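Quick check before the chapter quiz. The format below is the same one you will see on the exam, so make sure you can read both the input and the output lines.
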Amino acid sequence: MIEFRNVVLQYHYDEFALLKGVNFTLRDGINTVLADIQSGKSSICKLLMKEVAANSGEILVDGLTIGSITSADLGILYLPSKPTFFENKSIRFNIEYPLKVRKVAKNERRERAEQVAASLGLDNLDAKVKMLTAEERKLVALARGLTVERKIVLFDDFFEICDDGTKTLACVDSMIDKFNNATCVILSSDKRLAIGNTVVLDGGVTVYEGNADRARGVIDSLDWLNGSLKE
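Here is the expected output.
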């Protein structure tokens, strides 16, 4: 469980606080954080990954202040909308990389990479990543993340809704379910992606936390930049 208690975040180059004392809880299982474009979703990820520190307030993970937990013990996987790779290396190399840095034996990491790739329908693992489509790159990022155990998974604008209303990475639920026992957080500005315990932020404050269906109704009353939110 992750708790944000009165968290304020203001970057030194801004005249205003991006997060103005937010309070919410991300529970074990699946969560969604909905906020408008450029309204703090990636900054929440940075706070959890300890890339930035809050100006005030507390972030607790399983009852411990985040500053007292090492990054390794946090076990965070960050999946942005445009994952980065070793572009001139193969899919296999990129999927195996987290195991390689952990000094896992070559045969073992190859076997694990092939297992997770197969579970996502990835083949031709010797192809270079730079040749892949945006959708294929996301699948490789998922496969890479699945090679080691994760405690927290952050999907930062990772999933999208197509013009015809379908989701990219066709079945979001099944993708998330692959991260067994992890606290999974979808961060998006699109209410149609809301699932599980849902937090709505507006103007740097928490305006709702609870059921995903009710959260969509809350968003309908807000004036956000993303016109696609209005059905």
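If your answer matched, good. The chain has seven helices and ten strands.
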